[in-house]
Write a structure and sequence with these properties.
The protein has 313 residues and is an alpha/beta fold. The protein has one domain (41-309): Rossmann fold (3-Layer(aba) Sandwich). It is 54% helix and 9% strand. It has 13 helices and five strands. The protein has helices at 2-35, 51-61, 72-79, 81-84, 96-107, 118-127, 146-160, 166-173, 175-188, 198-203, 205-216, 245-256, 283-304, and strands spanning 40-45, 64-68, 111-117, 137-143, 194-197. Helix 6 packs parallel to helix 9 (175-188) and helix 7 (146-160) packs across helix 13.
C-alpha cells in the first residue's frame, strides 16, 4: 500500500512540475524560434551606386537569397509599357503586390536580400505599409556621390537608348525619391533605417561591413569580402533577375565580372572641386547631366545631414 501511495505521489509531483515548467519551456522555445525568424534586408539606392556589387556581397555570405530590382517592371508598366516591355522578361512581376508575395514566400525558408532603385519603389512604399510593419524587415539606403552616379548612368544609358531628356534623367537618378523614402521609412518602419556610403564599401570594406552587419544583427562573414567573377554566360538565375540577358549584361557587366568591392571610375573635377562632366562629349548632353546633378545634389546633401543613421566604418 505504501509503495502504491509512493507511485501516486510521484505521478502527482510530475504533473505539478509539468504544469509549472512546461509553459516556460514552450515560451522559451517560441522566443528562440522568433529570434531565428528569417530577415528581409531591403536596400534602396539610386542607379550606379555599387548596388549590384552590394547584392553580390550579400549573396556571397551564403545565408541570403537575393533579388535584383524585382519592382522595376511594376513601376515601368504604369506609364512606360510600350517603351519598356522589351527590357523585361514576360514573367516579371507586374504589381508591387506580386513582388511582396515573392519576397515573403522566399523568407519562409531563407533570409532574403532585395535590391531596389529609389525611383521605382518610393511611391509603392509610401502607399503600401506592409513591408514597413514587419519586424523581420530592415531597410538600408546606399548612397553614392551623384556626380559619379550621373556620369556612370549616362554612359550606360547611351548604350540602351541614345536620346536624353533632362527631366527624365533628373528623375531616374532618384535622389529626391531616395530622401523622401528615407524620411517616410524613418517615421513609420518598425526598425530605423541605416545609410551606407558607397565610397566606404571600397575604401574600408571590412570595417564598413562589420558595422553594417552589427546594425542588421547578423554575423560578420569573411566570405562577404570576395566572390567569384562570373562570365558572359551568366543569366541572373540566382538573382531572380527580371531583365533578359542582353539588358542585364549591359547594365551590370562590371559587377557580374567583379570579385570584390573595387574602386569604380572617378570622374574629373575642376580646381575648385566642381564636376566638369567632360567625360560627356556631346555638349547638349553635358549641360543636361550638369543640371540633373545639381538638382539631385541637394537631396544627397540632405541625406548626409542624417549623420546619426550613417554606418561608420
Amino acid at each position: 500500500m505504501k509503495k502504491k501511495m509512493g507511485y501516486i505521489f510521484l505521478i502527482m509531483l510530475a504533473i505539478s512540475l509539468a504544469s509549472t515548467f512546461l509553459p516556460v519551456v514552450i515560451k522559451a522555445n517560441s522566443e528562440l524560434f522568433a529570434s531565428k525568424k528569417n530577415k528581409i534586408v531591403y536596400m534602396i539606392s539610386p542607379p550606379r551606386s555599387l548596388s549590384v556589387a552590394f547584392l553580390r556581397m550579400m549573396e556571397s555570405r551564403g545565408d541570403f537569397k537575393v533579388m535584383n530590382e524585382p519592382s522595376q517592371w511594376a513601376w515601368c508598366s504604369i506609364d512606360q509599357y510600350e517603351k519598356a516591355k522589351k527590357w523585361f522578361k514576360k514573367d516579371a512581376p507586374k504589381t508591387f503586390d506580386e513582388v511582396k508575395k515573392i519576397i515573403f514566400n522566399k523568407a519562409q525558408t531563407s533570409n532574403v536580400f532585395v535590391k531596389e532603385m529609389s525611383f521605382a519603389v518610393k511611391d509603392f512604399l509610401v502607399q503600401d505599409t506592409e513591408l514597413l510593419k514587419k519586424d523581420s524587415v530592415y531597410f538600408v539606403f546606399l548612397v553614392r556621390n551623384p556626380h559619379h552616379s550621373v556620369v556612370s548612368f549616362y554612359k550606360k544609358q547611351q548604350l540602351v537608348c541614345k536620346g536624353l531628356e533632362e527631366d527624365e534623367l533628373t528623375n531616374l537618378m532618384g535622389y529626391k525619391e531616395l530622401y523622401e523614402a528615407f524620411k517616410h521609412i524613418k517615421a513609420h518602419a518598425i526598425h530605423v533605417p541605416c545609410i551606407v556610403l558607397s565610397e566606404d564599401l571600397y575604401l574600408y570594406p571590412e570595417r564598413t561591413l562589420k558595422a553594417l552587419f552589427d546594425f542588421l544583427v547578423i554575423p560578420f562573414k569573411k566570405s562577404a569580402l570576395e566572390w567569384t567573377s562570373l562570365t558572359d554566360n551568366f543569366l541572373g538565375e540566382t538573382w531572380d533577375e527580371i531583365k533578359p540577358k542582353n539588358i542585364m549584361q549591359t547594365w551590370h557587366d562590371d559587377a557580374i565580372k567583379s570579385s570584390g568591392f573595387q574602386m569604380p571610375s572617378i570622374y574629373k573635377v575642376d580646381n575648385d572641386g566642381r564636376p566638369t562632366f567632360e567625360e560627356v562629349v556631346n555638349l547638349e548632353h553635358r549641360a543636361i547631366c550638369k543640371n540633373a546633378y545639381k538638382k539631385n545634389l541637394y537631396f544627397y546633401n540632405k541625406l548626409l545631414e542624417e549623420d546619426a543613421f550613417i554606418i561608420k566604418p
